[in-house]
Amino acid sequence: GDVLLAFKPQVLDDVAPELNARLSSDATILSVLAGVTVRRLARILPAAGAHVRLMPNLAAAINKSAKRLFA
């Protein structure tokens, strides 16, 4: 299943061990954590099968934006 990471990036190191223990290879990590690269996500959450960084645009606040996906 998909797992959305949407919290302060400073706490990633604290939650990663427990989260990684609950992941399986069919999990996809979707992250909106500012400044956290796909490479870092893959390193810190290796149990997931895929890692995707979502980068919402500031215009999302007025519902006028596109979202970019990077995997």
Would you mind describing this structure in some detail?
Helices cover 25% and strands 24% of the residues. With 71 residues, the protein is α/β, with parallel strands linked by helices. Strands 1-2-3-4 form a four-stranded mixed sheet, with helices on one face. Strand 2 (28-31), helix 2 and strand 3 form a beta-alpha-beta unit. The longest helix has 11 residues, at 12-22. The two termini are 16 Å apart.
Which structural class fits the helix and strand makeup? alpha/beta
Helical residues, percent: 25-40%
Work out the radius of gyration.
13 Å
State the separation between the terminal residues, measured CA to CA: 16 Å
Overall, the morphology is globular
Major beta sheet summary: 4 strands, mixed
Number of separate strands: 4
Mean pLDDT: 88
Identify low-pLDDT runs. none
